[in-house]
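The following block was generated as part of the benchmark described in Methods. Ligand: F0G.
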Amino acid sequence: MWSNKLQCFECQRGFSANEPGFRCKTCGGLLEVKFDLARKKEPPWNNRQLSVWKYRELLPVEKEESIVSLAEGGTGLHRCKRLGRKLGLKKLYVKNEGENPTGSFKDRGMTVAMSKAREIGNKKVLCASTGNTAASLAAYAAKTGMECIVLIPKGKVAGGKMLQVIMHGAKLIQVKGDFDQALEMAMELADRRREFYLMNSINPFRLEGQKTLAFEILDQLGRKVPEVVMLPVGNGGNISAAWKGFSEFQQLKIVKSRPRMIGIQAEKAAPIARAVKSRQNKIRPIHNPQTIATAIRIGSPVNWPKVLSAIKQSSGTAETVTDHQILEAQKELATLEGIFVEPASAASIAGLKKLAEEGQVDPSETIVCVTTGHGLKDPSVLERLPKSQTGYNLEITGASSLEALERLL
Ligand code: F0G
């Protein structure tokens, strides 16, 4: 691990990694890990296998024996020729984060934050979640042997994720309210009861793991910088982390430029996209956000200052998509490319479709869409599919003749 410190994103005050709480004690700003990259040479990364820990010099965990891993990262960067052709795009890639051990990108952050938690001696971990953070935390807590508490918005979390949390033995508490309220409660609890270590994306160590998404994209493209990277945005941790990753490779002079970062939100849960489109430098929280993409059903994203800064610095943008567009994109990606993602992840594809149709992306640009979670996490989509697509209408009884079967084909 290279030398690093915790620093306030707003006022730059420094903090010790062992101090509890993830807000600046002076101004209340978000914290981030700052590595000293001056005069640093690239480590022998080319000799290591693609994974989160390939980049361990840039991860804030001191001792090898602290590491808790389920083999995260090393996900596929898929060239999508069939979907690209349909959208009129020549170089379209999907970085499929559903290939992580618990089926979402959260594992990148969790392996690092959990290792850090262990290193600084925590025994109990806590998060609020729309499902994937909870599933990932529960798995890593199980692996580490830590007590795990998760708060989820009641009735608003996909079935697969609930099953994961329960299966891994975490304590699952359903909050009557939405994610924003559950996170508020988790943050207050972590302040009041210091034995509970908060693992939401306000925890800067988690974002360090998630930044390896950017390192991997660059390595998989042979260090050629894509022009555009698109991600679904909920609490805003992932897009900020990816931007930090691209920036660090640039500081290390591994690459010369950085991509435009484009964040996609669901139409009725889009505080970031609204702020970007109306050129505001603050967000206005959305009360009672709604979308079928429950993973990003978030009205008051804690990481908004980092997101707005990443989008602005990168000359990127943010866009909204409807639930209908999300479901359509989910189906298209699955049928054209063999990649099955959950609705929130399909938002990045739906957003790209919208921008391509509006001529806002250049067909010759290299575009990477990040799909954040596996499709199997949310089987409720089955009920939303038009009957003609499900195959349910193709019915024969065991006694029917082979001719009846052939007529259906
Ligand atoms: N996609 C999926 C599948 C997610 O689960 C999330 C966030 C996001 C995108 C958005 O990422 O919050 O970093 O902007 N899920 C969180 C959770 C909130 O609790 O699982 P973000």
